[in-house]
Specification:
This protein is mostly helical and about 325 residues long. It is built from 16 helices and two strands. Strand 1 and strand 2 form a beta hairpin.
């Protein structure tokens, strides 16, 4: 399942890496035979959202003449630097320095050349003097907490759920389940590959508290992210302290994040691709499986890539049961 999720991460990053604007790739694919094939698959399996990403990868890989030169140059240069810079950067630099250097260089290039491709753009900020004041003004947190009345007055039910609270709660419940499956895939992968133990109750409580905090400040729901997790691992930020520091920096640096506005999206795509491309091209964990384990792993991974983590997980369980229980196979390990 993890391989399918990583392929999805790659599919989401490639459009902004090879094209000035990611939407241009979607438009090109829609007019191609791959676009027609995607429509046919989704007509049969409406939940096959991943097929669009796979189509994007196949189209981009087979039509290099459609790539935009400047974002492509930024993308490949940053990808190469992030993946290979450890061979020539000073050893005393902390892990992740290559990411900072690559994005900083791309930002400087964007500013001085007036790069007209896709960039981060304007980042909403509040005054550094605004937000929550604690301990008599000694500590200021630049976030604005919404009052309960404002939260309840947002017409989200009428706009998105046909005025049905039942539909809203059902959608939220499904999101929670999909989110937890995503976290299972991320955390179990880290446990296997990096010996980082994880706990289902701990992750559920953490995600619940995070979503309560997100709602209090008017944010979108919080979920696990394969791409961010892999980038964090690549840069060495995998400890509890790193998580706390990251959260504090996100909060306190918010008034100054406009410095990232001219950063090309191609550079950010390069960072994401650097974290997943090796495992996508050579899925070592799947290739190590034997016999029935291999069948279950491949079917689960491919289904996840073409549909979604939820459907992939469900199909994986069915294939596991069929191959290893009904047919009397050996105990399998789902990839």
């Amino acid at each position: 399942m993890k391989w399918g999720c990583e392929l999805g991460v790659l599919a989401s990053a490639l459009p902004n890496g090879l094209y000035a604007f990611g939407s241009s790739l979607k438009a090109k694919v829609a007019k191609s035979a791959l676009g027609e094939l995607s429509k046919s698959v989704k007509a049969v399996v409406p939940g096959a959202t991943g097929v669009n990403g796979v189509s994007n990868i196949l189209y981009a890989a087979t039509n290099p003449q459609t790539w935009d030169p400047i974002p492509t140059a930024i993308f490949f240069s940053c990808t190469f630097f992030v993946m290979k810079s450890k061979n020539f950067l000073p050893k005393w630099l902390p892990p992740g320095s290559e990411v900072v250097i690559a994005t900083a260089a791309a930002t400087v290039f964007s500013v001085y050349t007036k790069y007209d491709g896709g960039v981060v753009g304007d980042i909403p900020t509040i005054s550094s003097d605004g937000g929550i004041s604690l301990f008599g003004g000694m500590v200021k947190i630049p976030i604005e907490v919404m009052d309960v009345k404002s939260l309840l007055n947002v017409p989200i039910v009428e706009r998105c759920f046909g005025s049905s609270w039942v539909s809203l709660f059902m959608t939220a419940a499904i999101f929670s389940g999909v989110n937890f499956l995503s976290i299972v895939g991320i955390a179990s992968g880290f446990e296997t590959e990096n010996n980082v133990p994880w706990s289902a109750p701990r992750e559920l409580i953490t995600q619940g508290v995070s979503n309560l905090a997100a709602g209090a400040v008017g944010s979108a729901p919080v979920s696990g992210s394969m791409s961010r997790s892999l980038v964090s691992r690549m840069t060495g930020a995998s400890s509890k302290l790193a998580c706390i520091v990251t959260a504090l920096l996100w909060i306190y640096m918010m008034p100054y994040m406009s410095i990232m506005s001219p950063t090309p999206k191609a550079a950010l795509s390069a960072v994401i691709v650097s974290a997943v491309v090796k495992n996508v091209v050579i899925p070592k964990k799947i290739l190590q499986l034997k016999g029935n384990d291999f069948i279950v792993g491949v079917v689960t991974a491919v289904t996840t890539a073409l549909t979604s983590p939820t459907i992939g997980f469900g199909v994986g369980v069915i294939i596991y049961f069929t191959v290893n229980i009904l047919l009397g196979g050996n105990k399998a390990k789902v990839a």
